Amino acid sequence: HYLMAAIRHSLQSEVFSPAEERLVGVVSVTKVGRKKKACFLCASVNSEQPPQAAIHQVKRASEKEPFKKKHTWKLNELSFLDGKGANSSSPDFDLRFDKTYRWTASSIAEKNAFITCLWKLCHRCLQRKKPEFENVDRHRLEEQVKGFDPSHLGSTTAPVEEAYQELSAKEEADLEKILSGCEWSISNVEALTERLTEELSCLDDANIHSIMASEDQVVALLSQMDKSLWELQKIEDKLCTYDSLLQEVRDGMEEMDDKDKRLQIEDRNHAQLLDEVESLVSKLDIGHEAEELLRRGDLSNPQDLAKCTAAALALQQAVDAGLSPGMDMLSAVTQQRETFDQLTWGFVKRLSTHLNGLFVKQVSIAAMCYTHLITTV
User: Fold this and answer.
1) How many angstroms separate the Cα of 152 from the Cα of each of 155, 156, 204, 369?
2) Please, which residues bridge with residue 68 across strands?
3) Is residue 29 exposed (0-12), middle (13-18) or buried (19+ Cβ within 10 Å)?
């Protein structure tokens, strides 16, 4: 409470007093989801009649610079307030002007106090269209409005409670002690008044000394706060730098992971392609020796004839071999098929010529035997 009172004092003296405005509500906030230096949302009224209310975003760049208004919105520009739940433990809330601004208060108590202040200002300063308040404790806000006097809005000092308050037991005893030193007569009224004036003067002196001492302490506290905020800003800057570095590392790791996946896919494709090529070669390759036998093998030699038979069977298997879909479109497969056709027709021609020669030779031998047999008979 003392810290917030000191901040209110600084804001009033540095920002609002020079503009003839009075600070009526303040909350320390940060933007939702962002790690940046905190700022203050302030509600103020001016000295005009009727008073005009406004909402300001106030911050300062460093501890040595004064507070300055960054944004200012008139109260009638506020169209919607979302308190994020009447009984919520979340310090978040939204304000909608030209666009929606999402804030996180430093505490739930400050958030509720600021929302209450805006509720009062809207009901006292806006006669026509009022903003919508959603997810707030309307009963509590209505109770706050009942005890609010709008005549104090335009004044430069806080409202003073004028209702009668009953004396406490201690106050009653002090009053009796003072009155006991005076006689109960009309003639001693002046003496009583003089004594009461002296007592009041002493109390005023004590209050002044207390206020001056408190002011020094407040100034020292504000100085320490400024230094702390400056150190926090340094830490936040370092954290932002570290976060950027970590993001670069994450991006690099994701890129390396993508490359590794692509390499694995390429390796699998190369292995499958190699297996397919080896299978294709094993099916379509009959060997150089078999090709030479089919082209030039001596069919009259029993040994070469057996080898030519084996080569012809291998050629038949290669021609009838089943291939994967699309393999017939490869130029190497087409050329090998043409080579097989040439080998087949060449071997068939040679085999046909050889068989014709054998048939003619056997017919000649049979004719000679038949002629010799007839002559002998």
Assistant:
1) 5, 8, 26, 151
2) 59
3) buried
94-124 residue pLDDT tens: 999 999 999 999 889 899 999 999 999 998 8
What value does the CA radius of gyration of the chain take, rounded to a whole number of Å? Answer: 53
HSE, CB side, 13 Å, CA atoms: give it for residue 142: 3
DSSP 56: E
The pTM score is 0.42
The residues, ordered by sequence, that sit 6+ positions from 66 with a Cβ below 8 Å of its Cβ are 14, 15, 60
Q: What is the pLDDT of residue 162?
A: 32
Handedness of CA 160, 162, 167, 172 (dihedral sign): positive
CA distance 333 to 170: 115
Quickly tell me which residue has 């005890």 as its tokens. 147
End-to-end CA distance of the chain: 152
- pLDDT score, position 42: 96
